[in-house]
Amino acid sequence: MGQEKKLSISAIQMCSKIGDKQANLEKVQGLVERDIKAGTDIIVLPEVWTVGWAPKHFRDSAEDINDSRTIDFLSKIARKHKTWIVGGSFITKEGEHYYNTCPVLNRNGELIATYSKNHLFSYYGCDEGKYIETGKSPIMVDIEGIKTGLTICYDIRFPEIYRAYRIAGADLFINCAAWGLKKPVPWECMTRCRAVENQTFMVALTQSGYIENGEWNIGHSRIIDYKGETLSEITDQKEGAMSAVLDFTPMYEFREKCTCLNDIRKNYEVKSV
Fold first, then answer.
1. pLDDT one-digit tens code per residue, 106-158
2. Among residues 37, 52, 200, 211, which one has the fewest Cβ atoms lying within 10 Å of its Cβ?
3. What does the pLDDT look like over 61-96, one tens digit per residue?
4. Which residues are CB-contacts of 20 (< 8 A; sequence separation ≥ 6)?
5. For the chain, how far is it from start to end, CA to CA, in angstroms?
6. Residue 7 has what pLDDT?
7. Cα separation of 166 and 271, whole Å?
C-alpha cells in the first residue's frame, strides 16, 4: 500500500423523521448542499436515515437493492459531488428476507458493495430482530487504496468483528449508528477503544434528536484517530457535517513502532482452579 495517502471525509449527523422517507431524502439533500465542501473524498450517513430508528416501520420502508429509490438518490449525489458515499443504512429486502444494509457507492455513482448488520439490537426491550435478519458476513471495501471495514451501530459492542477487519488489513473503520441517549458511556468508550486496540481510524457517526415515545438519539458523533484522539466531533444534538483529513502515513509509522498486535496469542486456554 502506498504510504502517502490522505482521505478527506465528512460525516452527516441528522435527526430522521420517523417513517417519512421523502422528508429524510430532502433533509440529506439540504445538508449535503449546505455542509459538504469541494474535494471531499467520502460522505458518510447514519444508520436507518431513510426511516429513523423505529423497527416497526422497517419493513414498510424496505427496498429491493436492485430497484432502489435510495440508491438512485445517493448515486446522483456521488456523481454531482464526485465523492464516494458510505450510505449509512436503509432497509433492504430479498424476497421475504429483510436486512439493515449499508451501501457503498464510488465517485461515478456505482454501487460497489453492501454490508448488512451482523448483530441486531436485542435488549432494552428492542425487537430489531423481529423485523429483519442478521447479515451474513463482514464486508471490507477498498476506497482508493484504503481498506475500510463497515459496521452498523450495535456491531460496536463486538470487538471480534473489528479485530477480524484489522487482521484482514483494515486502515479505517466506519460505524453508522442510531445510538440511544440513555447509553452515553458505551458509545464514548467503545468507539474510542475499537480505534485504539486496532490502531485504526474510526468514524463513529450516529443520529441525533428526538425519535418517538420519549426516546432520543445521543448525537455526539466523532472521527477518531488510531491513537484514540478526536479529530472532529459534533458535541451536541445539532444536525450537520463533521469533517477531517485522514493522513495514513503517520498511522503506518506508528504501527511499525507499536507492535502490540504481534503479541496476540492465537489461543488463550482458560484454566479454572
1. 999 999 999 999 999 877 667 899 999 999 999 999 999 999 999 999 999 99
2. 37
3. 999 999 999 999 999 999 999 999 999 999 999 999
4. none
5. 47
6. 98
7. 28
Residue 84: in which H helix or E strand, if any? strand 84-86
CA distance 135 to 65: 14
Closest CA to 9 of 140, 158, 174, 151: 174
> Do residues 232 and 26 lie in contact, with contact meaning Cβ atoms separated by under 8 Å?
no
DSSP letter (8 states) at residue 36: P
Average pLDDT of the segment spanning 30-52? 98
Sequence spans of domains, the chain: 6-263
Spelled out in words, what is the top-level CATH class assigned to the domain 6-263?
A: alpha beta
Give the residue numbers marked as catalytic: 47, 117, 153
* 8 Å CB contact between 152 and 102: yes
Cβ–Cβ < 8 Å for 224, 202:
yes
